[in-house]
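Changelog excerpt

This revision adds worked examples to the README so contributors can see how folded entries look when concatenated. The first example is reproduced verbatim below.
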Amino acid sequence: MAQISLWMVLLAAVLGFAVGMVWYSPFLFGPAWIKLMGKTKKQMQKEMKSKDMRRIFGLTAGLNLFIAYMLGQAIVLLHLHGWNEGAMVGFSIGVGFVCTNAYIESLYAGKPFRLYLINSTHQLAALIVMGIVLGIGAPINP
């Protein structure tokens, strides 16, 4: 069976992580996300200092690596190739599984809809970016 390049999996994971860094930055949705979490910027900064952020970022990076690997496996198993097919798989998995499950969780947790939108569209964007990278790196099947 054809295999997805582990270098492309690594690149997809790094870019997926980068999407989150930009998404929650002060330039995009960071300020709105903090407000919807019911916190102030100062409270969030204090929490960030009190938590083991190296552990959290390390786990996030590792989980992004796992997500990228599994997304790559899906692309290979479906015999897909190219940025557009990879993007479509990322979009389909994002909308079909991630966003729907996140919304169910959000309903039960009583979280604001806007918070759900920020969080779930981040995951959707990351999966699309990962899918593009993995689609480009997918082996061409005869």
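The second example, added in the same revision:
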Amino acid sequence: MYNLVSRAKEKTNVSGIKRDIKIPRSKDPNPEVLPRAKRRQFSTAFKKHFLEEYNACTEPGEKGALLRKEGIYSSYIATWKRQLERDNLAGSTSTKRGPKENPQREEMEKLEKENERLRERLRQSELIIEAQKKISQILGLGADESDKKR
């Protein structure tokens, strides 16, 4: 019966001589956690300056060399140009992130409160009318007599 463990440690070279293979193993794994990459943010001044410099390039390959030198993707250029055309280059106007606020929301809340207040008032009025009907029946005032008074 052959031993799998000892077989795994042996290797035969071309001449047929068996030799042991030493598998390097780290006793302690590296406990250091690599930091997570952060998204780069460029200032408005940098974007404008870079676009001017980029547009000034006339020689073939000069624009690509500038992009490589600064470590900037060509898609940034297209985005920054679009933002510059709309005069919305990051930092020039602050746009609030998240769901858009409804301008009619305040008015809607006010109307909902008023609606609730009126519903409560209507409920109280209906209770008073019910009580008046019962008192009228107890006192023997019928619907006929109350109609004549009107």
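Reviewer comment on example two: The chain has a mean pLDDT of 78. The longest strand covers residues 10-12.
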